[in-house]
Amino acid sequence: MVRFFTRPFAKRSRSAYRWFDERTGSTELVHKGLYEAVPEKGGWAYTLGSATLVLILLQLFTGIFLLLVYTPSFTEGWGTLNFLQTNDRFGAWVRGMHLWGAYVLILVIGLHMLRTFFSAAYKRPRELNWVTGALLFFLVIGLAITGAMLPMDQAAYWTLVVVTNIPHYVPGIGDGLRQLWRGSDFVGQQSLTRTFAIHIWVLPFLLFTLIGVHLYLLRRHGEFGSWVNYTPATADPEKELAERLRRAEPPYPTRRSERRWAVPRRTVEFFPTQLFKDTAVSLLFVTVIFVFGYIVGAPLSAQGNPATLTYVPTPEWFFLPLDQVLLLAPGTDLIFAGIALIGVASVLMIVLPFLDRSRERQPLRRPEVLLPGFFLIALLILLTVIGANRLWNL
Amino acid sequence: MLAAAPPLQPIPTSNVGGSIAVAIVALFHVQIATFLTGASFLIAVSEGISIARGDDRHERLAGGLLKAMAYVFTFGAALAIFWVLFVLLGMWGTFFIALTKITFWPFIFEAGLFLTEIVLLYTLYANWDRLRAYRRARFGLAILLAIALWWQQFFIDIVASYMLTPNGGDTNQLAQVLNPTDLPLTIHRTIGNIAWAGAIVAFVAALRYRRAKRRERDVRVEDIPLEHSVGAMSATWYTQADRARALRVAATNNVAFFDWAGTWGAIWAISLTALQPWIGYSFAKEVQLHAYPAWYRMMFGDISTVFLLQIFLLGVIFILGNLYFWRRMRASGTRGVRTQVLMLGFLVVATVLAAMPARFAWTYADMVAAHKTAAWWDGGWNNPIGTMIPNKVIALMVLMIAALVVVTSVVRAHSRGELRWGDATRRSQWLLLSLGVTVSLMMATMGVIREHSRQPFLIEGEITIQGQQILNPATQGQGVPSIGSTP
């Protein structure tokens, strides 16, 4: 022990690292993480997944900072955030980053899913990558919605009232579900406590568990998509594919995949080529969040007041399609039908790989999947635009 | 000298005469302008595909559409001048000058974009073949033309939507641009214009196909390149030489080309119209929230029966598209024919339900006045089966989903190379011809509904049709005395 402290610093560091590495295998872990084959073509299209991860981590960090101040109380919650906004040097900025981080995260995860959908990266053997990814998307949406209810200003209070009322439209068990969330028939302290618990414990626990599974599956099966070049270039495709299979580096050839899609035509190491692209794109999004968080920040309207007659509640932008459905479907039965339709669409989205069993990967040859998908996406975008226009004219 | 000048005489017309003149010119104007907007989009798309995939059919279609645009625009521009100068200024001067003052900037931008359109359209028309050597430049010009026309539509939508939902006469520029019905109308029209242009393509292609098929009887183009499969893989691809040969044949052979163009146009028409029930419903919802009297006239008043006609025509559009695709797929013996038959059943039932009157009286007020509000099986005139909510809404959703399945089925057959161009029967082209006519009728009906729902107003709640009286103090200063009312 004495000898260790009498050595020069560099030697001491190496020795400490060897000790640590011997027990944890960290060098091998880093090596595995950095040196793996990824497709050479389409690298920029594959940066959105890692950007999503970076943005989720950013949300975690900004969320921890907010937790240091925020009190989940019906009477004091708004006051703690108001204090943060007005008295803390960086409080408003961090809160703004948490809000804009959520907005950008929803957009990026949506784009990531679109890329996966468009390029058929959910097909065999990557079905579970898609399922976990789709669940992650819904968890992020859940986090955004529950997060919008916490500041206890007017917007948050009325979001809490409207959103916790939605389960009530489910026939039979609706009232019970609403009571379970609210803690009673009406919105109160219990509703906030439960929503807070869901936001900071339940959903993040599920989120990080699924992220682990998602990353493991990604590493197991490698990246895939129709952007990647799989087309044989020689006159004898059969021979070329056989050669590719022979020379493939892990994680290729993809197991349980058709031979044509098992190995990309050319691969590169993840480090430095792909890591550079991932870092550049993630940095771009993080910069946007820093800038918008600082300049625009996060609004905090007056403290929530159940007795107000003048405040007009407006939903968050990502909630607009559902809000339009609620608006366009007057009457309890139709509201339930609308929500059920969205539920069915969500389930269909999750089980997509089990519905689309064809082996075709090229987008133009999969209209039976792409057309309904684009139809749905077009409707969502149009409902958002029309919803935003309606809010403007309120 | 001036004092001795005789007073200007009003144009000898009545409100009815003026309305008829407006109706005739407006209907022509709308059909032409919407075709131009939609066609410019299809030209850009086809030119893009042609460059990306080396598909000569798309180049031929883009060239043909551009020529058609130039001819139609020439006539349409003359009509627009006639419409603005004589009908609107001569017969509805007070209203039109007030409207021009209120929506001054949108009109200015409209005029600027009109000039841009002239420059781009005639540049492309005069140099289409010459620019073949500079495909990307030609593509760029086509995109610019489409953008200019879309903005033109956007600015005129501000005017049209302001007339329906002026939001208490708020003349603020931003409030005009984002008035309650502007974005829904813009989305509705953007989608509708492309669908309309698709229907025209299908109509013209059907006419040409019938003639080509008669002249070149028994011509059957083997448009399917040979498939090369690799080992155990099911996925297939074609060699570049195969594709190029097939596409050359398809582009130069009239039978193959017009068969393809008709199907291509119909696919645009049906797939985009499938979005319209939802967008239209959103539009109507905004009218309900911000111009309730107009909405009431549409749903319960004089126009409600015309509204039913519109829903009926919507169902007919889908049915005609479905019938054509069914016949087309059957002619080539593709998979998915049974799906089309199944969807036909859904479409017919949904159309009947959607177009069913909610009462057996012209208006709701007639039914109430006759004390016949009970259901028809109880001796009244009310028909609960035809209620908007939830029955018609459900029927509209079925129409949307069935139309989507219909289009997906035919595109699927196309994408797998199962449709052989030239197989379509001459008789099946009547379905495309009917589709074009029905879409045209649909557009006319929609125009009638939108314009008449405002009555007795020209601008809802602001300016009346009778004597073009300006009611709202906010717009009072915008008007000028009409020639007819000059003392």
- Count of alpha/pi helices of chain A: 16
Strand content of chain B: under 5%
C-alpha termini separation of chain A: 74 Å
What's the overall average pLDDT of chain B, rounded?
86
Q: What is the typical, i.e. mean, pLDDT of chain A?
A: 90
The low-pLDDT segments of chain A are: none
Helical residues, percent of chain A? 55-70%
Count of beta strands of chain B: 4
Description:
- The complex is a heterodimer of chains A (394) and B (487).
- Chain A has a domain at 37-229 and 264-314: Cytochrome Bc1 Complex, Chain C (Up-down Bundle), CATH 1.20.810.
- Chain A is built from 16 helices and two strands.
- Chain A has helices at residues 2-6, 9-24, 26-34, 48-67, 77-87, 91-118, 127-148, 154-165, 174-182, 189-221, 237-247, 270-295, 320-328, 332-350, 352-355, 367-392; strands spanning 37-39, 267-269.
- In chain A, helix 7 packs antiparallel against helix 10 (189-221).
- The mean pLDDT of chain A is 90.
- With 487 residues, chain B is mainly α.
- Chain B has helices at 15-53, 56-91, 93-102, 104-127, 135-164, 173-177, 182-215, 240-252, 254-273, 276-290, 292-299, 304-332, 337-354, 364-369, 388-415, 429-453, 473-476, and strands at residues 228-229, 236-237, 457-459, 463-464.
- In chain B, a hairpin with a 3-residue loop joins strand 3 and strand 4 (463-464).
- The A-B interface holds A 231-232, 237-238, 241, 258-261, 324, 327-331, 333-334, 337, 359-362, 364-368, 371-372, 375, 378-379, 382-383, 385-386, 388-390, 392-393 and B 167, 178-180, 182-184, 187, 230-235, 237, 271, 274-275, 278-279, 281-282, 285-286, 289-290, 389-390, 393-394, 404, 407-409, 411-412, 414-416.
